[in-house]
Amino acid sequence: MHDFHEYDADKSGYIEIREFLPLCTQINKAFDLGAPTAQDVFSAMKIFDLNQDGKLSPDEFWNLIHKVLQAMLVKELEANRSNQIKADKTEIREIMNDAAFMKELIESAKQSFKLHDKDGSGTLEAREFYYVLKEINSAFNLPSPNVDDVNNALEFFDKNQDGKIDFEEFVKLMKKILEIIADSEIESRHVNKAKAQQEARKVKEYPLTIS
Asked: How far apart, in Å, do the first and last CA atoms of the chain sit?
C-alpha cells in the first residue's frame, strides 16, 4: 500500500481515477470493509485530491497514506483496549467468585439486609425492597424508583417468584451491583488510558469515508 509506483500503472507520475481503485480496495481490506463501489472511489478521490485536478500527486498520495496509517493505529488501539477490558472484567468475575470475597460479601450483606428488613420477617417485601433500590439509584445518580421499577427488579431477582427477596437473592443483587460498578470503573479507566496514549502519539482520528 505504501508504494506510489505500484499504483501509478502508466508511470505518468500521478494516480488517475482508474488507478485509484486498487488502492481503495487495499485500504478497505485493511479495515475489513467490502469492495469499494465506483461512488466510494470518486468520493475518496475528491477528499484526497487537494488541488482537485482529478488525480493524486505523490504528495497527495503520501497524505492519504499518512491518514490511513493514523486510522489503522487508532483501530489497533481500540482493538487492544477492547481485549484488555474483556480480560479485566473476566479477572473481576474470578475475584468475585473467590470464596474469601464471597465470605466478605455475605457478611456485609447481612448487615444491610437486617437494616432493610424492618419487620424482621427474614425477607424483603416490595415496600422494603423499594428503599434498597432507592439507595442503589442514588449511588448511580438515578431518580428514585417507581412502582414499575420495583416490580421489574423483583421479577428479575426474585428467583423463586414468591413476591419478595430472601437473603440469598439479596446477596446476588449486591454482587450484581458490585459487578456493574467494577465494569464501569474498568471501562472509564481504559477510555482515559486510550486518550492519554493518543495524545502522547499525537494521533487524531480521521474519518476515512471511502465505503
From this structure: 17
Which 8-state DSSP code applies to residue 55?
E
| Of residues 175, 158, 165, the one with CA closest to residue 98 | 175
Average pLDDT estimate for 131-138: 90
SS3 of 123, please? strand
pTM: 0.55
* Structure letter (DSSP) for residue 202: T
**pLDDT tens digit sequence for 8-32:** 999 999 999 999 999 999 999 988 8
In the predicted structure, residue 199 carries a pLDDT above the cut 90: no
Which cell numbers hold the place of 96? 468475585
Q: What are the cell numbers at 35?
A: 469492495
Sequence-distant (6+) residues with CB within 8 A of 68 are 1, 27, 30, 208
User: How far is Cα 205 from Cα 75, in angstroms, rounded to an integer?
Assistant: 9
Does residue 56 sit in helix, strand or coil?
A: strand
Phi, psi angles (nearest 5°) of residue 174: -60, -40
The C-alpha torsion from 149 through 151 and 153 to 159, rounded to 10°, is -170
How distant is the alpha carbon of residue 26 from its chain centre? 27
* Residue 59 in grid coordinates: 504528495
